[in-house]
Amino acid sequence: MNKNRKESMKTLKDIDVSNKSIVIRCDFNVPMEGTRITDNSKIVKSLDTLKYLLDRNCKVIILSHFGRVKSEEDKSKNTLKYVGQELSNLLGREVKFVDKCNGAKVKEFVDSCNKGDVILLENTRIMDYPEKLESGNNMELAKFWASLGDVYVNDAFGSMHRAHASTAGIAKFIPHCIGLLVEEELNNLSVLVRNTPHPFGVFMGGAKVDDKLPIIKSLLDRCDYLLTGGGIANSFLKAKGADVGSSIATSDDDILNELRDLMDKYKGKIILPVDFTIDDGIIYDIGSKSLELYKKYINQSEIIFVNGTCGKFEDDRFTEGTSGLFKILKESNKKVIVGGGDTVSAAKKFGYSFDFMSSGGGATLEYIADGTLAALEWME
User: Fold this and answer.
1) Among 184, 247, 276, 357, whose Cα sits 20 to 30 Å from the Cα of 9?
2) Would you tell me how many other CB atoms lie within 10 Å of the CB of residue 247?
């Protein structure tokens, strides 16, 4: 994001929101098992903005997506009802949950609520079936949501890499700004976009190299070391000619060719693991020699960006790589920025916190790669 764009974009403190009705887009797409939220980090991160609004006697109307909706069954399955209960507990006040997010009855209900009320509408993506109105950034839908309030606040950093009706379109119709969470994200991630100190180290793990190839290429142009783990490391190894068996790795010949080209172009910059934890012929983690190798590069870096994990850390048999990497990062006393939901969850599982832990997954990666986000363009 260029300097002029940042200056033309209003933050929450640039707008007088006192006693107004605020439509706020949050990212409450949290992991769940049944009706239990297994990680409420995204909800907790939204609290500062919500409390800021409530302290100014606002009526707060919350929009969020939850999973994908591709059928009628998904509409009832992917409900924000339990998120509303968790948010109510965290705020210490009632959250009025509405099991719809569009239509005259929603409008009537919201209009009947008072200043100081918190209203959570149902999953915005129920508007994606049978027609993709939400993800298609349908202007009529955006106009309806805008009609519910006086000001629109986008505080859903993790969803801003998509220009949807609830993350982008609303901004066309009413005064708008970014929330405190988004402002914090942009301020902390900007060091990875411009004026990055060197040596700049990156750890990139996770399952699918196909999805992360654009960010990998962007970072290789700017970083000094790219350390790899998980399926990404396996894919590079496979491209190099190693037999990775049935381990997670890309099978796309074009991508394998691209990985070979990258290893030729950036000789000495892409660092691959040298030993592994293998079970039944499948690579599940990196080993202690790889960690020692990575420690050398981490200690040489001034700043390190971490996205993804070393292996299948959810299984207690394969935690050595990921927990060991976090230990090395913590003990390095270097500036460490962690991005991606799984990465943050893993850090929390092993009891580590770092200089900044981003709430975004794909959004974090796209912002670092491009310096902007699709929905951010609408917030000017």
Assistant:
1) 357
2) 21
* pLDDT digit string, tens, across residues 188-237: 999 999 999 999 999 999 888 998 998 999 999 999 999 999 999 999 99
The domains located in the chain, with CATH, are 3-183 (3.40.50.1260), 193-370 (3.40.50.1260)
Average pLDDT over residues 111-125: 98
Spatial neighbors of 132 by CB under 8 A, at least 6 apart, are: none
Burial of 192: CB neighbours in 10 Å, binned 0-12, 13-18, 19+: buried
Distance CA 361, CA 339 (A): 6
Give the predicted TM-score (pTM) of the model. 0.92
